[in-house]
Each structure stands twice: as C-alpha cells, then as structure tokens.
Amino acid sequence: MIRHTTALIMIACMLLSACGTKDETTPESTKSSNGSVTLTQEQQNEPTATGTGKTKTNNPQSSTNSNSDQKSPGDDETSSTEKEGTDNTYGTQAAEDDIEKTYYMNANYYIKPNDKMSESKVVLLTFDDGPKEEKMIKGLIDTLDKHDAKAIFFVNGYRVQSHPELLKIIHERGQVVGNHAWDHEDLKKMSTTAAAKQVTDVQKIVKETIGVEPHFFRPPFGSGNDALKATVKKNGMLYMTWSNGSLDWDKSTKNKPDKVIQNVLDQLNPGSNILMHELPWTVEALDELLTKLEQKGYTFVDPRSIELEARS
C-alpha cells in the first residue's frame, strides 16, 4: 500500500514538473532556426501605426482605403507647414490691423498727424494704373525698399485679371494695394449701379488673388460723386484723389525723369499725397526723387497708419 502511494506521488511530481517547463519555454516571440524574431499571432494582429488592426502593407491603395479616418504620422507636421505658408502669403491683414493709426487725411487729401507732436513733414507715395510689367514693378519696389518706404499701388481690375502674379509681387513685397476701379473709365459718368460694380469687382478679385481687400480707393481721373463715395465707404475704404501731381502721365513729361522730379518738388508741402504712375521714366526718377525729399527733411508715411475716415 505504501509503495503504491509512493509511486503515485512520484508520478504526480513528474507531471507537475513537465507542465512547468512548457510554460517557461513559451515566450511571446521566439527565435527561428536562423536567429530571426518571429511574432506570435497576437502580435501580428495588434493595430499598427495606421490603425488598421493588420500589419502595414506597401500597397498605397490599401493603405489609403484603410486609413480614411486616421492621420498618418506626418499629418500634424504637414498641416502646420501648410498653415504657416498660408499665413506668410495672406496673413498680412492681421499685421495691418495691428499698425497704430497715427495719421488722417483731410478734405484736401493731405496727410496729417493725429498728434501735433508727431512728424508732420511727411508725404504719401502712390502709383496708379497697374499692374503692368514685372520689370517696372520690381524697379519701383526696389527703390522703395532702398529708402524704407511704403506706397499704395492703385490697381485696375482688368489688369489684375490679366496678370495676377504681378499683384502678388506687390503684396508679398510688403507694399499696399489700392482699388482704382475695374476699368480706367470715368465713374462719374456711369450709373450708380455700374460704378458700384467697378468698385466691388476689384475688391473681389484682389481678395481672391492675395487674400485681403484694398483699404484705399482712388477713382480714375479723380472723378467721382457722393454715390461713389458712399459705395467706397460701404466697402471699408478711404476715398482719395491727390494733392500733388507729378504729371508723369502727360506727354510733356514723357521720357523726362528730371521733369517728374521737378513737378513733385514744385508742389511739395507737408502731407503731400503724391500721384505717380507705373511708367518707365517714373521708375527712373524715383530714387533721385526720394533722395531729394529726404534731403528736405521729409519722411514717407506708411499708408497702413492712415485712418480710413477722412476729416474736415
């Protein structure tokens, strides 16, 4: 009896020992005969980085279909980069809104300081009838940059439609875009509805092209009326003509940069709102003109610092 019991105990111990050895030699991953790691079935079915619940494949179509609601590992980085690029191109509106309004325009289109202690010996630089040619635009802006000056480029809608890339150059190089109506026609001779469309169509195409709308309006030939002014105000713009004409457009000044300069200096006063155009002889005259203005103690007002409501 004792021998029988002892034999049973020994058999039981041997069985228990065998079970323990099997558990200890069953890892979640084992090495194959060539030393590589083989995943268990449970590991093979774990969700991958794509969130599919299956091992990642090299099939782009399969990956796309299985990840329609998931972000890839680089999605956040891409979105951030795209957003930054958008801000760099079209995000200047916020920067413009942050600029303090330290000047206003009076009824005669002169630029005046809000604070009597502020600099009054300033001029506003403006260029009409563009954008025409890349060479001229870059020439004007290169000179403006040299003198740390900002200007308003009053553009026609039909020209923007033909050359939107030129408008982008003006905007991306930090200059200010103004509205000069769609066509260069006398708005005063149009119906109120037709004239309003000339204004709003430019607002629309400029916004579509550079992401912001103009804040300044100048009618072709300086010709307008109360109805036009109301439309301009409704569209959030300051209506202006000019107080200093360079006459660069006149045949008497064609190809005569020296005369462009002298015409401006002859009419010069603190706050002069200077009318110029995108013309070859104006491009040629600009550096010397700005130098002479600086020598006379003038600085160049940033258009973005001008209030959008005129004062008497």
Q: How many DSSP H or I helices?
A: 12
Computed structural class: alpha/beta
Question: Could you name the CATH homologous superfamily of the domain at 92-305?
Answer: Glycoside hydrolase/deacetylase
CATH-scheme architecture of the domain at 92-305: Alpha-Beta Barrel
CATH-derived topology of the domain at 92-305 = TIM Barrel
Mean pLDDT, all residues? 79
How many strand segments?
12
Distance between the termini: 126 Å
Question: How would you summarize what this structure contains?
Answer:
The chain has helices at 2-24, 41-44, 60-66, 75-90, 92-98, 134-146, 157-162, 164-172, 192-210, 226-234, 257-266, 280-295; strands at residues 29-31, 37-39, 103-105, 111-113, 122-130, 151-155, 176-179, 216-217, 238-239, 244-245, 272-277, 299-300.
Question: Can you tag this structure with a few keywords?
Answer:
TIM Barrel, 12 helices, 312 residues, globular, single chain, alpha/beta, six-stranded parallel sheet
Can you walk through the features of this model?
This protein is α/β, with parallel strands linked by helices and 312 residues long. The protein has a domain at 92-305: Glycoside hydrolase/deacetylase (TIM Barrel, Alpha-Beta Barrel), CATH 3.20.20.370. 45% of the residues lie in helices and 14% in strands. The protein is built from twelve helices and twelve strands. The protein has helices spanning 2-24, 41-44, 60-66, 75-90, 92-98, 134-146, 157-162, 164-172, 192-210, 226-234, 257-266, 280-295, and strands at 29-31, 37-39, 103-105, 111-113, 122-130, 151-155, 176-179, 216-217, 238-239, 244-245, 272-277, 299-300. Strands 5, 6, 7, 10, 11 and 12 form a six-stranded parallel beta sheet that branches. Strands 1-2 form a two-stranded antiparallel sheet. A hairpin with a 5-residue loop joins strand 1 and strand 2 (37-39). Helix 6 runs parallel beside helix 12 (280-295) and helix 9 runs parallel beside helix 10 (226-234). It is globular. Residues 4-8 and 12-94 have low confidence and may be disordered.
